[in-house]
Design brief:
This protein is an alpha+beta fold. The chain has 2 domains: 230 residues, Rossmann fold (3-Layer(aba) Sandwich), CATH 3.40.50; 113 residues, Beta Barrel (OB fold (Dihydrolipoamide Acetyltransferase, E2P)). The two termini are 47 Å apart.
């Protein structure tokens, strides 16, 4: 079956929980792609996955998987693998029994492949252990093996890394990147962590307040956010409010032209990418467009990038490599020129 025919298609999906409404949401996941659903807490991300899985009733819309309408099917007949934030393992079963539970419940006639899955996920040595004796990362590996044991047509992951410590989260992120690349089924991974979203996802869907704000290839959405909420979620910083007209926008002492302000008039909101800011020694000449004179207020040596707070109009904070700070010999009080490349700026109509 061609890859496109094994994908997921969601059309006009909506659901309700009290006064909160999700949707309508329309999106698709080809079988060879991983969709990451990004949004703040309470945005409706988990609600979307639960509705697709059949765990929550929908008000409207259609769900199609591998060319089959599964909208009215109960969860156990949708053949969807689920991994939750808390792993949700059966405490009275061993690791291997947890992995075998799905195929046995479905009365699968083919071998369940549990031994291969345990080996693939590096947990074969835990087969006879109780879930209570496992670490958080180990439990999530077991949950992932259990979800894959039913040979699902779709894999849904509901913030499976959010409860893990940083080193374990990074290990699991690498595992998921590898595993999801190898799988030939559509997968949806939800998170509120933009680094996780951009490292795991081929495609990105951003949900805010129950509404799908933007969807597309992850790199495109990250570089071209559709509105201020999407920009903030993807790491853009707000420069402030300014005015635009005649192909030029101005905020404080900063002016920039057609490359970012074309077609805009009146009050605008300006956003920038802190990691794209370029600093250089002050020349004493009149700054060009998108260049400001500034002084270094503070340097915070966070890792992997240091945060440099700059006194200028408007105020700016740059994220810089430590070697660039050393090369420029930057210290608090230094005078510098700040350059904002056109690609590091996004301008939206205010309000």
């Amino acid at each position: 079956m061609p890859t496109a025919d094994r994908g997921l298609t969601v059309s006009g999906l909506s659901a309700q929980a009290g006064s909160f409404t999700l949707g309508p949401v329309s999106l698709g996941i080809p079988a060879d792609r991983v969709l990451v659903v990004l949004g703040p807490s309470g945005a409706g991300k988990t609600m979307l996955l639960e509705t697709i899985a059949g765990l929550r009733p929908q008000q409207a819309g259609q769900i199609s998987l591998a060319g089959t309408d599964i909208t009215g099917l109960p969860p156990e007949r949708r053949r969807i693998g689920l991994v939750f934030q808390d792993a949700a393992l059966f405490p009275h079963l061993t690791v291997k029994e947890n992995v075998r539970f799905g195929p046995r419940a479905l009365r699968a006639t083919s071998p369940d492949g549990s031994d291969d899955l345990l080996r693939q996920l590096g947990i074969e040595h835990l087969a006879d252990r109780s879930p209570r004796s496992l670490s958080g990362g180990e439990r999530q590996r077991v949950a992932l093996a259990r979800a894959l044991a039913i040979q699902p047509g779709l894999l849904l992951l509901d913030e499976p890394l959010s409860a893990l410590d940083q080193p374990t989260r990074e290990d699991m992120r690498s595992l998921l990147q590898r595993l999801l690349t190898e799988l030939e089924i559509p997968a949806a991974h939800i998170t509120h962590d933009r680094d996780e979203a951009l490292s795991i996802g081929d495609d990105l869907a951003v949900i805010v307040g129950g509404q799908l704000r933007q969807a597309g290839p992850a790199a495109t959405v990250a570089a071209e956010p559709a509105d201020p909420d999407v920009a903030r979620l993807l790491g853009w910083s707000e420069l402030g409010h300014g005015t635009a007209g005649g192909g030029t926008a101005r905020i404080g002492q900063l002016a920039f032209g057609d490359a970012v302000a074309a077609g805009l008039h009146g009050s605008v909101q300006v956003f920038y990418r802190p990691e794209d800011i370029q600093l250089s020694p002050r020349t004493g000449e009149t700054p060009a467009d998108a260049v400001l004179d500034a002084h270094v207020e503070r340097i915070v040596h966070t890792r992997p990038l240091a945060r440099v707070s700059l006194g200028c109009d408007p105020p700016i904070a740059a994220l810089m490599l430590h070697r660039d700070i050393d090369r420029l010999q930057l210290t608090a009080g230094d005078r510098v020129q700040v350059s904002l490349p056109p690609g590091s700026l996004r301008v939206f109509p205010a309000g």
